[in-house]
Amino acid sequence: MNIYFAFAVFGKPIRYVVQAVLPAMVAIFIGTVLIAMVPALSTALPVWLMASAGRLVP
User: Fold this and answer.
1) Backbone φ and ψ of 57, nearest 5°
2) Quick check: 20 and 30 in contact, CB under 8 A?
3) What contacts 24+ positions apart, CB below 8 Å, involve 47-53?
4) What's the CA gap between 50 and 56, in Å, rounded?
5) What are phi and psi of 52, to 5 degrees?
6) CA-CA distance, 45 to 56, in Å (whole number)?
7) pLDDT recorded at residue 39
8) pTM (predicted TM-score)
9) Residues 14/3, Cβ–Cβ less than 8 Å
10) Low-confidence spans in the chain with pLDDT less than 50
C-alpha cells in the first residue's frame, strides 16, 4: 500500500518505485527468516544483558 502512496506522491512510475523499494523488502525478508530459523539471533542480546547484570540465566 505504501508503494502506491509513494507512486502517487512522488509522481514516479510504479516500476521505478518498486525497484527502489525491492532491496529493502528483500533485506527485511531475509532478516525475518534468519531470526525465525536461528533462535540464538533473537535471544543472544537478552542473555548477554542478563549475564552482564549479574543475573543467572537458565
Assistant:
1) -110, 125
2) no
3) none
4) 7
5) -75, -20
6) 14
7) 87
8) 0.63
9) yes
10) none
- Using the structure block, give the residue that is written with the C-alpha cell 542478563: 50
- CA separation for the pair 57, 50 (Å, rounded): 7
How many Å apart are CA 3 and CA 22, to the nearest integer? 10
Enter the C-alpha cell of residue 18: 518498486
Grid cell digits, residue 57 = 540465566
Instruction: Please tell me the predicted confidence (pLDDT) of residue 3.
Output: 80
Q: Which three cell numbers stand for residue 44?
A: 543472544
Place of cell 525478508: 29
Backbone angles phi, psi at 41, to 5 degrees: -65, -35
Q: How many CB atoms lie within 10 A of CB 24?
A: 9
